[in-house]
Hints:
The protein is α+β, with helices and mostly antiparallel strands. About 30% of the residues lie in helices and about 30% in strands. It is built from four helices and 15 strands. The strands form four sheets. Strands 3, 6, 8, 9, 10, 12, 14 and 15 form an eight-stranded antiparallel beta sheet that branches. Strands 7-13-11 form a three-stranded antiparallel beta sheet, with no helix packed on it. Strands 1-2 form a two-stranded antiparallel sheet. It starts with a helix and ends in a 5-residue tail after the last helix.
Amino acid sequence: MAAGAVVAGGQTVATTFFDSTQAVAALQPVAQVTKDAPAETTAATFTGAIGGDQLLPDPLAVDALDPASQVDVQNLAKAVDIGRDLARQAAKIEAALSDGAPEAFLYGETAFVKPTLGHLTSLFGSRWGRAHEGIDIAGSIGTPIYALTDAVVEESGPATGYGLWVVLRHTDGTQSVYGHVNRTFVKEGEKVKAGEEIAEIGNRGYSTGPHLHLEIWSSDGTKINPLTWLRKRGIEY
Length: 237
């Protein structure tokens, strides 16, 4: 809404500015000029007309404006730039949501999406006497799973303990792991976009019920708490 107000304000400046050109036109003197008069005669006659020495400079020339008007034009240019930035950002969000992802956010200039719908049932950390290196999001078998962000598919298929999984490498070198999936829809080496459906929730491998097991790995392979990583990018569970 704030950006829209800025653009609207810029339109008001433009309208006021161009209305002033009509007022200038109304003040221009009338000179008698014959059809066959030479160009230099016409110019001289016009210049010598009543009020001719009071003609205003070209109102469309920025350097002819008073300082306050120059500031208005600069503000209008800034408003146009802001409008373009907002339109570009909106296009990225729209593209990330086009495959059905429930939510999308921009982190810097990069789009991230909520990977699936469901309920958080298990956290990152110690569980049952061993490390649980991701989070579990319970949902019905067949619920779509979406690529968190733009990435390349590193693995897609069977994995010990996970049943089936998909591993994506993001453009910044981090990786996201989607485990216990029912089906995968991508192949190793394939490029995927934020929000593209890559798999669906399943109950394969060492699983006590249908859910997505989501892990985040840093570029050096260290396991990161997915909730902290997601929240930094606007995604909440």
